[in-house]
Write a structure and sequence with these properties.
The chain has helices at residues 49-62, 92-103, 112-117, 124-136, 141-147, 159-168, 187-198, 209-214, 261-271, 281-291, 317-322; strands spanning 45-46, 68-71, 78-79, 174-178, 218-220, 226-230, 233-244, 247-253, 292-293, 304-308, 329-330. The chain is an alpha+beta fold.
Length: 331
Amino acid sequence: RGPPSSSSSNGGPSRKRHHGAKGTSEAEKDVFWYPTLNTPPPDNYTPGMMLLLKKALTASRSRGKTRRACLCWDRAIYICGQPWDRGGAAGTYRNFVMACSGLVEQQEQPMYFALLDSPISPSVRHLQLWIESAWADGYDPQGAAQLQSLVGTNKWIGVSDLYTAFSCRGIPCELVDFDYKRSFGGNEALMKWVVNHFSPPSQPRPSTAAAALMADTIVFTSKMPIILQDGLHSRTIVGFEEVDSTTFNLLVFDPSRHPSAKLRKAALALSEPSQREEISDEVLRDSVPYFRYHLHRNVFGKQWQILYFPMTEPLSDFQMQKRKLVTSTQG
């Protein structure tokens, strides 16, 4: 278990430490926001980004640059770090908050809201409390023994720790590992898994060339975003883009990056139907490269690990007991 990094000297995965959540000050507000709160989003939250991404991909397809793309749930929110939480919190912690902002809004499993909102709502700093509470209930004894304490520290955490936090709340989630020794740097297996995950059920092929051109090949799905961890860094996967039959890109929300003012303004406008305005060609051209994440050859032997949400019913007591030990499947 632990982060997908090179093995330590004793043959197991090593736990590294990195910057995490820090002390509180008036300027360091650790806010958890979602659209149904009916309050303006904080500066580091950007709703509407999925709508902008779809428009940009549609424009890219019209220019012959994109063949198709499958995207996650259309209300996923882009959340980036703030000056006070740069480091580890701008990765795993912010990806956790991005996942929670979707899980409390979606209606496929409405019971998730109560499980996530109480007794302690999600946030960057509250995640440490969630994990320590899970340890106290017997979850992840190996992680508890390695980290010992977490609240108020800068200790690094990974997606296996998020598995523990969500499982303790009764939220179904799964870990999948991709071993670089088994394929082209692990990348081939990872991309195939992501494409299969987000692709809708097979549909009949268009009968004519005109029908093919009219077919909607840039689509939203009901899938929740996926958290991808690569060593010490993590990103949120919101879909994939097929450029041609041999070239695929992941589409990601990277919390360590901040969208330009133009991109954020366009996304916010799209998130408010009453205020929607025409998006400039310049913004559409700039959007797709911003979200593309190409998996280059993995020459450093990185091992990828993902956390995804199958969106099944909340965990039973029996299922929660089984998840006290962190397990994963091989992708």
